[in-house]
Specification:
Number of strands: 41
Largest sheet: 7 strands, mixed
Number of helices: 11
Helix content: 10-25%
Strand content: 35-45%
Structural class: mainly beta
CATH topology of the largest domain: Neuraminidase
Low-confidence stretches: 1-57, 518-532, 591-608
Radius of gyration: 28 Å
């Protein structure tokens, strides 16, 4: 079956060439070690609104039972928070907060539909800036093998008030296209229409809409709604009055069952403030996540006919450390159905799924709960409906939505307009018995047998690795680097030539700087094309595994940094390269004395005479590239740095990113640059060494004191 793409008309299914440039440059602040610059073309589907972003690869993250690999995809920037994701075969359907719809394919490319969710923003005389005016959820219901109904829960501008709606349209798949009909049907309008004053109230109107949906058989839809911030707004407006009761025909703070044929609505459960997640387990039980006010985020097991307490009880308190006036006893949840678990302090809870991923079999039947405030996933282990434990897995982004792909990957939508695909980090092994760590348990789907790759290779250099040890990588990111005597071996899986739209490189620092010759600086390889033409380099691709090996110099190594230059394509087709972005580093545990006989550099003694934390940090994290005297190393010397204009130094060609800053170095801005160089000067070639803000400040203080 041809690769699917989506468009408004079949004519939009034209093909175009995506040219990968053979030219790029990296400034001399770091050594970019490239052996060749190939040119390559590939064919990919395109429509006018196609975008493709290759995001810098974050490191692998750890958890209790698995190492997790994150594969990021950048979307067009959002102007607000919200949105949702839903699997569609090998694709991921995305709805942005303001109603743009896109598909992400298996290669990480995002294509946008011309149709938008009908939110009626254009009817407003002024631009709508409510952060809570948003798409809340999307849901696909399959009617036929090639036909789906797409349901979207969202806000709709209705003049003096804002409606909360469910709209639907048809999605059709054929051999070459995925199309939307573009005709939207209103399936449900919540009662009441929310006054605009509530949307203006502390920016919380609309944020508390809820909106998660599930099918309940072929003809019914479940929708869980929030209170739209009504009760907090009412309490501010009428502080001495009790809250008004929820009217029977009102649709706020309820689990609703909607009959699609006639629009009839049944209340299943009630008492919700701001439900963000809804999922059904294999036994048919419904699980819901809900924002409390300040504190008291909840995990609820939903049962028909029960009231879950809001606004009368909550484990949280009112914002500003005030009591919640309707609670009889602060911090208790008496007289109403209690949550299964509460997070205090609040984690900014969002959606949840029940895991049955083949990538994570030890997580079977666990709840995976996403969060905004803590930028983490929470794995919740249940036993007979009770929480046994909760594991926090730090992701590093505000997670708006979570879903599981059919192939087992977990997809996250973040508030910074990224999609993160989570899967098991691959284990590289020669035989299954070679891997004995906890991460090898149930590892059949991720354990790569390198013995097969090596045995299948034609190159004798590759076959000479048959007895090499591949159990413990020196560097591990989205690839692994192994050091075996005087040989370095790069391994990546999954791997395909067409995936390498970036350049991998090495930056190697000798333990003795006198070995840093021009010839040794050109040490590295380019994984876009393995035809290096050098005898000491060999490569093989076998069963989605890329393996490249090369000889190392015969001197002692101090550091090895690995990274990539990221390919960026502008809307007009111009290709540029951003970076380098550093992915991993290795430091030799046994290093010769850098201040050997005959080395008259004053820098080691200067650092030795200074017992400050900044001096130690500089020696460990910066000294391999920068000298404190007036002699350049791999990077520019730092003598007289404070007060010097950024990028302006004799005898060293600094990056354009630095010279464009047009600033003088101070202790304050230097600390910012050290902590996050690419954010401070986008495009800078200085490595991000993972230095914390506090460490960066100490290094900056040391450099300022030794100016």
């Amino acid at each position: 079956m041809p690769q699917l793409k989506h468009s408004s008309t079949p004519e939009a299914g034209r093909q175009r060439k995506l040219s990968i440039s053979s030219l790029f440059s990296v400034a001399a602040l770091v050594v970019t070690l490239l052996l060749m610059h190939p040119t390559m073309a590939e064919t990919a589907p395109s429509v006018a609104t196609e975008t493709a972003f290759f995001a810098a690869a974050p490191p692998i993250i750890g958890s209790h039972l698995y190492e997790i690999q994150l594969n990021p995809v950048e979307l067009e920037p959002f102007s607000t928070w919200g949105g949702a994701i839903e699997p569609l075969g090998e694709y991921l359907l995305v709805a942005t907060p303001r109603g743009r719809l896109a598909l992400i394919d298996s290669e990480g490319k995002a294509e946008y539909f011309p149709q938008k969710v009908p939110m009626n923003e254009s009817a407003s005389e002024k631009p709508i800036r409510w952060i809570g005016f948003r798409v809340a959820d999307i849901l696909l219901h399959q009617l036929q093998p090639d036909l789906f109904t797409l349901f979207v829960s969202h806000h709709y501008f209705a003049g003096d008030c804002v409606e909360f709606r469910i709209s639907s349209t048809s999605l059709h798949i054929d051999d070459t296209n995925i199309t939307l009909s573009g005709e939207w049907k209103t399936e449900f309008v919540a009662n009441p229409c929310i006054d605009s004053d509530i949307f203006n109230f502390a920016h919380r109107g609309g944020i508390q809409a809820g909106g998660r949906m599930l099918m309940d058989g072929p003809g019914h839809l479940l929708l869980v709604t929030g209170d739209q911030a009504f009760y907090e707004w009412y309490q501010e407006e009428h502080p001495l009055e009790p809250p008004p009761p929820v009217e029977t025909d009102a649709h706020i703070g309820k689990l609703l069952r909607i009959e699609l044929a006639n629009g009839e609505v049944e209340t299943v459960a009630s008492g919700f403030r701001n439900p963000q997640g809804l999922a059904r387990d294999k036994d048919g039980r419904l699980w819901q996540t809900e924002h409390g006010p300040q504190g008291g985020d909840e995990l609820n097991h939903l049962k028909s006919g029960l009231n879950y307490g809001w606004p009368y009880v909550t484990h949280g308190i009112q914002y500003g450390n005030k009591k919640w006036p309707y609670n009889n006893v602060q911090g208790r949840h008496d007289e109403y159905e209690k949550p299964v678990y509460s997070w205090i302090p609040a984690i900014g809870i969002s959606n949840l799924i029940i895991s049955d991923s083949r990538y994570f079999p030890l997580w079977q039947d666990d709840l995976l709960v996403a969060s905004l405030i803590t930028r983490s996933l929470y794995r919740v282990r249940l036993n007979q409906g009770h929480v046994m434990y909760v594991e926090k897995i730090e992701i590093g982004a505000r997670i708006r939505d979570i879903t599981q792909m059919p192939d087992g990957r977990i997809a996250l939508l973040t508030d910074d307009a990224n999609i993160l695909f989570l899967q098991r980090a691959p284990l590289y092994c020669q035989t299954e018995s070679d891997v004995d760590s906890v991460y090898s348990i149930d590892a059949e789907s991720v354990c790569i047998d390198l013995a097969k790759v090596i045995a299948a290779a034609d190159d004798p250099v590759i076959r000479s690795l048959a007895d090499a040890d591949f159990d413990s990588p020196a560097i591990r990111s989205l690839f692994s680097i192994y050091l075996q005597g005087n040989r370095l071996t790069y391994v990546k899986s999954p791997c395909n030539r067409l995936e390498f739209e970036h350049r991998f490189f090495l930056h190697i620092t000798p333990a003795d700087a006198r070995n840093l010759t021009e010839e040794s600086e050109q040490l590295g390889f380019n994984v876009l094309d393995f035809n290096t033409g050098e005898e000491n380099i060999a490569a093989a691709i076998h069963e989605d595994v890329c393996l490249v090996t090369r000889e190392l110099p015969d001197y002692e190594l101090k550091h090895i940094y690995t990274g990539q230059v990221v390919r960026v394509e502008s809307p007009d087709g111009e290709v540029t390269w951003r970076g380098p972005v550093w992915d991993g580093s290795y430091t030799s545990k046994e290093q010769p004395d850098a201040a050997s006989e005959g080395d008259d550099s004053p820098a080691p003694q200067l650092i030795a005479d200074d017992p400050s934390p900044g001096a130690e940090l500089f020696a460990a994290r910066c000294g391999s590239c920068h000298n404190l005297d007036a002699e350049h190393n791999i990077g520019p010397h730092l003598e007289g740095l404070i007060g010097r204009r950024a990028g302006d130094i004799a005898g060293f060609k600094a990056s354009a990113a630095l010279t464009a800053l047009d600033l003088l170095w101070t202790e304050e801005n230097l600390a910012e640059y050290i902590a996050n160089p690419d954010q401070f000067a986008p495009g800078t070639t200085m490595a991000d060494m993972g230095i914390t803000d506090e460490e960066a400040q100490q290094i900056a203080e040391f450099l300022a004191a030794n100016k």
